[in-house]
Specification:
By secondary structure, the protein is an all-alpha fold. Helix content is 76%, strand content 0%. The protein has a domain of 72 residues. It contains five helices and no strands.
């Protein structure tokens, strides 16, 4: 299981990265391909090092964003579970509202999951 970064670790990473831009997934994939090609001897380690000086800070910014979002989602879900454990009755709507309020949105994920569920139910009905 992934051990989430602690808030102080995220703050330290953010301070080191400054205002660098976040990598797109295309940059992340390109970096992985370049690393694999370097390992196979298709690029020199010096060229890979120069590449990393540009790509790595952007990839780390993306990691910081992902870790931060994960920490936020974990805290929100944990708070809802704890509320239920203490006899409250939090709803799925409450959870989605709190996620939205935190600046994260699950609406596209929910729409995708709903479409998949509808397709699965339709396939089962045809069965």
């Amino acid at each position: 299981m992934l051990k989430p970064a602690q808030p102080d670790q995220l703050a330290a990473l953010a301070a080191l990265l400054g205002n660098r831009p976040m990598a797109s997934y295309v940059i992340v994939l390109d970096a992985a391909e370049t690393h694999a090609e370097t390992t196979r001897g298709l690029h020199s380690t010096e060229n890979f090092g120069r590449y990393c000086r540009t790509a790595m800070p952007q990839i780390l910014r993306r990691l910081l964003a992902a870790e931060s979002e994960l920490a936020t989602l974990r805290a929100i879900v944990a708070r809802h579970v704890a509320a239920a454990d203490h006899g409250e009755d939090p709803t799925v709507g409450d959870l989605v509202h709190d996620v939205d309020r935190a600046g994260l949105s699950l609406h596209d994920d929910i729409a995708d999951a709903s479409a998949l569920l509808a397709a699965e139910l339709h396939a089962m009905a045809l069965g």
